[in-house]
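=== RUN LOG ===
request id: a7f3
mode: sequence -> structure
chains: 1
length: 482
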Amino acid sequence: MNIPAEIIKSIEEKLPKIRWWPWRNVRKEIRIEYVSVKDRHVFTIFSTDNTIFYLPLRIVDENPGLPEDRLFSYNGKIMIEAEFYPDYLEALDNNEDVAREELKPIIGKPVSASPLSLETTNIVSKLLLDNKDAVVVKSYRLLPIVEMEPLMLKKLALEKYNHIPVLHRLYKLKDKTITLVTHYVEGYGDGGYPFWKACLEYFRDRTGKGSMRIGLAGKLGGIIGELHYLLNKPGDKGFFGAEQITSGDVEAWMKRLDQRYKEILKVMDNNIAGIDRKRELDKADFWRQLFEEKGKIVVEYALNYMDLYREKVKARIHQDLHLAQMIYVPGGEDFIITDFEGEPGRTPEERLMKEPVFRDIASMIRSFQYLSFMAYREVRGGTIHGVARRLLKNDATWQWRMRHSLSMTLSYISTIIGKEYLHGISREDLTQRYNEYLLPWIIERALYEILYEAMYRPEWIPVPIIGLLNPSIPAYGQVRYK
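=== RESULT ===
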């Protein structure tokens, strides 16, 4: 069935304004690869620039409260993205081209739908059921080449891992996973919430009750350890499972460090070239010069310690593990891990790579640094630049983040210490030199964050630079690069 030209025109006009469109404010001609028009639903798969997208639309009688830039039109009628209407799952089930895989039945019928966010690169909506329960619908707009998240969530669900949302269904169209349905988890949408509260109290009153959540950080380490074990059980092969690290792997990781350092300098230079105001130019130039001076030294540290991984083990990891990728459930003091799509800045080939399990721990340590920086700023006041300059002289966040990082890391090690196949590190090295194994990945992740901030939020660049120059490596003391 051909899609009406008016619908194609409407899609092409709206796409440049939508958050998930990769080419912001750029209109491109689309090629329809699949279409199904049935009742009030229009299912499409289209491509442009060798990128494939899934877009289901639903004709509605009136706007359910979405912003104008999320409304499509057809023949004088309003169309919305179908996930934001309660009959989306029913429409999928009625499409004979869509295959459904059921892992756990949904009890209840959807009666209302609402976006959980309109600022994500995928569509995430909440469907309220007639029994007052709720499920979350997540659809992929840009269809991934490697379906990391569906593969990982399904494996963890079958392994009965308790720290992901209950996975109800997977839907496929043209052999591509288009939609996941999980149970809605009641809690705080950022796993950093309890640590944020404690950190605020810590900076307000260092003797305050509850200013440390060391035990909770330890619990988090155990949760991550179990995650790595279930993704890489003995005998797992292919996408899952542990493998020996080759010299080529180490060289690729070293090359990534060096390239990232150089790319950061280029992006910083481009940013500076576009600044007119002298005061803002001076700030940007300060951090650029500091990074150039110290960054190369830090990269050399990382390169030296990266060599420890030769002939060790790499495995399937989360890859983008940080506190905002978790839901904190206060009732049971628990964490639910979400979003298994890999690190956003990587190519599809890089996302497919296996890496040492310590990289996820390093990412979490970096998450504690961001949180403590922002908590310190909240309490003490000041701009990001001003606070960072203060912390350069005396990093008041270091003690708090180091203690939480240490608790999480030691708990993690106690979970994986008997599973040498998972990491390839001897018991003695694991307990005595874990900080050396962590160091290159803390630096690698910090460089990723600096590059991200330089590209999208230049005013935030000082935050990861502070963490790069003074990382909270557990039991290492404060590191000052000379």
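=== NOTES ===
DSSP finds 14 helices and 15 strands in the chain.
The radius of gyration is 24 Å.
=== END ===
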